[in-house]
Design brief:
The chain has 34 helices and 19 strands. The protein is of the alpha+beta class. A hairpin with a 6-residue loop joins strand 10 and strand 11. The structure holds adenosine-5'-diphosphate and magnesium ion (MG). Pfam families: Arm, Kinesin.
Length: about 900
Amino acid sequence: MSSYSYRNGSSIARGGGGGGAVKVENHSSKYSPSSSLKSKVQQSTASSATSLRRSSTGSSRDDSTVSRRVRVAVRLRPRNAEEMVADADFADCVELQPELKRLKLRKNNWDSDTYEFDEVLTEFASQKRVYEGVAKPVVESVLEGYNGTVMAYGQTGTGKTYTLGRLGEEDAADRGIMLRAMEDILAEVSPENDLVSVSYLQLYMETVQDLLNPTNDSISIVEDPKSGDVSLPGATLVEIRDHKSFKELLQLGEAHRFAANTKLNTESSRSHAILMVHIKRSVKGRNSSLSSENGSMTLMGKTLKPPVVRKSKLVIVDLAGSERIDKSGSEGHTLEEAKSINLSLSALGKCINALAENSAHVPVRDSKLTRLLRDSFGGTARTSLVITIGPSPRHRGETSSTIMFGQRAMKVENMVKIKEEFDYKSLSRRLEIQLDKLIAEHERQQNAFQDEIERMALEAQKRISEVELSYADALEKEKLRCQKDYVESVKRLEEQWKEKQEKHGHGKVKLGQSDDGIDQKSNGVTPVLFAPGEVAEIKQKLQNEILLRKAADAEIDNLKSQLIHWKQTEAARNAELLKLRKMLEDEACQKAKLEEEIEMLQSQLLQISYEADESRRNLDRGMGGNTPSSMDSLMPEVKHQQLRDSGDGEKASVVKLFEQVGLHKILSLLESEDADVRIHAVKVVANLAAEESNQEKIVEAGGLTSLLTLLKSSNDEIVHRVAAGAIANLAMNETNQELIMSQGGISLLSLTAAKAQDPQTLRMVAGAIANLCGNDKLQAKLRAEGGVRALLGMVGCRHPDVLAQVARGIANFAKCESRASSQGTKSGRSVLIEDGALPWIVQNANNEASPIRRHIELALCHLAQHEINAKEMINGGALWELVRISRDCSREDIRTLALRILKSSPSFQAELKRLRVDYG
Ligand code: ADP
Ligand code: MG
């Protein structure tokens, strides 16, 4: 229970009653809604239901989802000067018991009704106290990462704008909730890591106008099918850094509101003012609710964890006056205008009623306001409502209806959920930086290698020429030395020869001249030219000469071998060069791989986003009829997606890819030889086709034709499923529906259905045909080409998702048919009956799955509206279903329609009479 009281409950108590905090805490638990007053207070039953629900869901489902009821405070405006005079003799129409959190609404002098609220703020409550009781807990939640809403509801002049928008220029104590909330926000956020931005809008007659840029007067509302978040991509978003600029912004907005209303000739009391404060905070450390393994990926062995951001939104809504407006046109409005002016507010009332009663269908899509506030009521936001009332007994009626609105809102339960996500964008930025670093490093290394190689080649060249030079030099020297030696030896030999000759000549003379026997004895025994010693000497010299020659030869050999050595060294250098080149190539290879890996990561990112969408859809389906969207849009894919800059990273990357690669390129990949590429491409196209803004471009570029061709040419079920899903999305649009038909789409879809194994494929095909069924112009062709039979053929697969789409198709078809019959362009019995759909329709009219049941109930009503179908319907047992619908259909409009048909059809009346069933 304590999780249900505002954390600031005690601070209000302190503000009001000093030391009474403990006492009031006791009261608040004593009079908590679950133990509410038994008398007259209608709320008591529903509140105990709420408390039951709370006990099962009150504890958090996971760390970030908690069930929390919408909190409602009531604030009474003091009597104004006019009331002081005019009502002087009368008591206020209400009596407040703030300490009991009760309000008594006087019925007459002796009787009153008592109501209980989360906070009862008297005419004396200060603005500070109102802020702390109503808005502060919501602001604190928003700062923690939850969405939050603060809204004021009440009759014009009861103080909504006073409570929310007051600027407190004369007296700062008068500052309203908007200013005080921004003060708290700015005090909490860090200017470096967090971002606060604001848009300010006015909603009037179902048109959203930008109060920060008045030329922007038709802003569209976009819903993110994944998160269900709504956004206004066209609205001006101003970053807020300080309090002063915010105040100026509010003043500017107020001025524009005044100007716009003057131009449109309206009062501001007829328009809704909506302030949206977007807060983006990065989550540091471990206090993230996203588990640590989730979403991390590896790049070359390194774990990269995307940073986590919390993107929450505070919405402050100053609603139009809740008083009923005069539809007679006395205010200068036509009846149409009057309806339109009222539309959003009455739609809000209907949604709150439906949520309070736990009804299966909440008509969120009926108005812009309810679409904008879909997260605030029954969504994931923490919501606080202040209802403002005046004291005057003359407005008792309006005061009472305001109180009843507040009472119903107190029964609305939200599942508050932390708005946290991985910041894929900044991860991608980080990856890009890392890649750039690697590329630069690689380039640097490559340059260094190149330089080193050049240096070594130069050095080798230098050494080779040095060696060659010294070799030539040595050779020349040796040659010269040899020549010199040779010349010298020859000279020497000649001299010796001369000497010998002279000696020899002298001896002869001696021999010839003297008779002296001694000389004869000593010299004349053998008369030779050389003495034997001299010959030996010459021989020796010759030997020497030969040796010298050999040494020279050896030297030459040595030099030659040195040359060879150098050549070998050069070869080794060349080998090294080759090795380095190879390393360079490896390096380049590595780079290519790295780039491939990045590409793969990007495609994984795409895949993740696609699968996230898919699982989101499964989740939507798992929730069955409880999601408000299941009635209006059975294909969650068609919900428009939010693509603003601060949107989630995955989608942004799809868009980025789309921009980079180009649609034509993506479409051409649909015909790729590679099956993986084909699957991938069709997933990307499907993802793109899920966004309304892309659909026209895809069809223009021939994407629809390519998708249809793919149904024919591919045998892969995944391709079939995804392509059929994309076609179903494109088939939301009338022009595309005609295109699909003219390109033989029906027979392709029927063929795909016949081959399909997976119910999800059938669901997509059935969804596509169901969309075609809703086109008035295509009725005859659709039937002729077997569309109706193909749809009915799919009921063999009993999967509820498929059946829901079939039922939707049948309802669409029956609706168009009924329209054609009423306009006289069709005669004869319903084609659906002719084609044998009736037995299945009757069998499933009370199907326990509400989407199936509701569509069939509608289809039955359409069929029954035409007397010509009545006989077959009676024979087929459809009459009993109509009777059941007229009694217990959860939708009042269908119930009434069935009853009206039963009463007005002569055939049905006759049959009921025959069976003695009283249905007069
Ligand atoms: P609404 O926005 O609901 O039409 P306003 O906020 O414009 O109502 O209030 C109508 C008038 O009543 C204004 O003059 C405002 O100053 C005054 N007023 C409203 N609430 C209070 C309050 N709590 N105390 C004093 N004056 C108030
Ligand atoms: Mg106002």
